[in-house]
Write the structure tokens for this entry.
Amino acid sequence: MLPYMADTGFSEEREMKILVLHGPNLNLLGKREPDVYGTDSLTAIDAALQALGRELGVAVECFQSNHEGELIDKLHHTDAQAVVINPGAFTHYSIALRDAVAAIGIPAVEVHLSNIHAREEFRRHSVIAPVAAGQVSGFGPESYLLGLRAAVHLIQNRPSRHSV
Ligand code: DQA
């Protein structure tokens, strides 16, 4: 498929780009609690995201960090038009990450491998959810792929700056 060209509101258009952020401990996927998070490595998940990105004609940048500030810096400096984010444990308490998601003014899709609503009480609350466009939770690695499709949908269906 030809790359989808995002309407920048200026004369030139650019290829649509989506940033995928993985939070703490997700670098251990495949080895970490496989009964909860499955046996796929993060490398395999990123490869699947890149493959889906090619199929959909969008550029995908994947980034993992165990450090809150690095995730926030990545959000501040991204030139993507949407974000897919698995904040890991930061989901449940990082107001700083939530504020960064709210600050950057591009839509975010929150994803989780496990169904956080069916787990321990402390995992059932997400401080990110109120500033995300939506949440995909409980489908294993497929959560990321569904999240990527949702992010593409959000970009393609956002109100045009030329429509008023
Ligand atoms: C997780 C769920 C979080 O509660 C946990 O801290 C994670 C992974 C998930 O993808 O299911 O690190 O975000």
User: Anything to note?
Assistant: The chain has one domain: 5-156. The chain is about 30% helix and 20% strand. The chain has a mean pLDDT of 92.
